[in-house]
Amino acid sequence: MSSCCPPARPGEEPLDRAPVAVGHARLDGMVELPGGTFRMGTDDPDGFPEDREGPVREVTVEPFAIGAHCVTNERFAEFVDATGYRTDAERFGWSYVFAKFLPGELRRASPRLERTPWWCGVSGALWRHPEGPGSDLDGRGGHPVVHVSWHDAAAFCTWAGARLPTETEWEYAARGGLDQARYPWGDELTPGGEHRCNIWQGRFPAHDSADDGFSGTAPVDAFEPNGFGLYNVAGNVWEWCADWFDRAEQNRAMRGGSYLCHESYCNRYRVAARTANTPDSSGGNLGFRCVVDV
Q1: Residues 6+ away with beta carbon under 8 Å from 54
Q2: Parallel, antiparallel, or unpaired for β 57-61 and 119-123?
Q3: Strand order in the sheet with 64-67
Q4: What CA–CA distances, in Å, run from 64 to 26, 34, 157, 163, 293?
Q5: What is the percentage of the chain residues whose pLDDT exceeds 90?
Q6: Alpha-carbon distances of 168 from 81, 89, 258, 266, rounded to whole Å
Q7: At a CB cut-off of 8 Å and minimum separation 6, what does 290 contact?
Q8: pLDDT value of position 233
């Protein structure tokens, strides 16, 4: 899977999860879309055939409404305060954090993965403490909630009377009415030299120049929205989708790329790109948005 998304949890025991009551909480910023037939997928030569991004095919989607942006830390806090919900990261006791975001002592004390040493398994890292003990959400209430697993995202949606988008819904919405464009705004990554998304600039993983204005997460409404009014469907944080990634039904699909994606190894901020992770996995660049039927 993509090395800019958190690795899967290493075969830990499954957790017993208390059910969350179905609710009808306020969902701000939903965009109603009419549905219809569009061309999904890509045959982009710069894509990843092993991810089954193609072939390009016509797909029909029913009308639905989708969040204009990802669920924020502020909104997720309302859910936790109302339900007492504990995320998978809290119950496992740790989550993945990008190494360069950690203070030296914590970075040295946190195990790294051999193949992706920029990821550290940090004890105490969770949505309220994104970089582990000593970190907080000060100034990040309007940023996307991270360190949420697929189970956590689905639980929030249940509480809110919503659900996670299917991959078809997500891609239809992310395209913003454009046919087969590489990005939500067109085919150029930085038209006229203007940054349109929060991704990695510089040499990964050593140096992020943050030319787009952000190192780490950006506010959920950063940059201009696409043609349907959706923000940050490219970069910022990976977004969980409802679907299984493949027939093995071990990993759930994710879309959109994140602030760690870079053209040198993971240009999965393209609108047709996809990756996956186990439904109990979490990390500092993994979030979600909601969908409701109309």
Answers
A1: 41, 42, 43, 44, 47, 272
A2: unpaired
A3: 30-33, 64-67, 291-293
A4: 17, 7, 15, 11, 5
A5: 81
A6: 32, 28, 19, 22
A7: 27, 30, 66, 67, 71, 156, 157, 160, 162, 163, 164, 165
A8: 98
State the average pLDDT over residues 144-161.
97
CATH topology of domain 30-82+143-293: paralog of FGE (formylglycine-generating enzyme) (3.90.1580)
188 close to 197: Cβ distance less than 8 angstroms: no
At 14, the pLDDT band (50, 70, 90 cuts) reads low
Alpha-carbon distance of 259 to 76, in angstroms, equals 20
Q: What is the mean pLDDT of residues 24-28?
A: 63
70 closest CA partner among 252, 225, 279 = 225
pLDDT digits (tens, 9 = 90+) for 35-77: 999 999 999 887 777 878 889 999 999 999 999 999 999 999 9
pTM for this one? 0.94
Residue with tokens 């009415």: 177
Domains of the chain, by residue range, sit at 30-82+143-293
Helix 150-159 crosses helix 73-83 at what angle (to 10 degrees)? 70
* Per-residue pLDDT tens over the stretch 212-237: 999 999 999 999 999 999 999 999 99
Among 167, 289, 176, smallest CA distance to 229 is for 176
**What's the rounded Cα separation, in Å, for the pair 211 and 200?**
9
Residue 163 pLDDT more than 70? yes
Contact call for residues 245 and 274 (beta carbons, < 8 A): yes
For residue 28, what pLDDT is reported? 73
d(CA 175, CA 170): 9
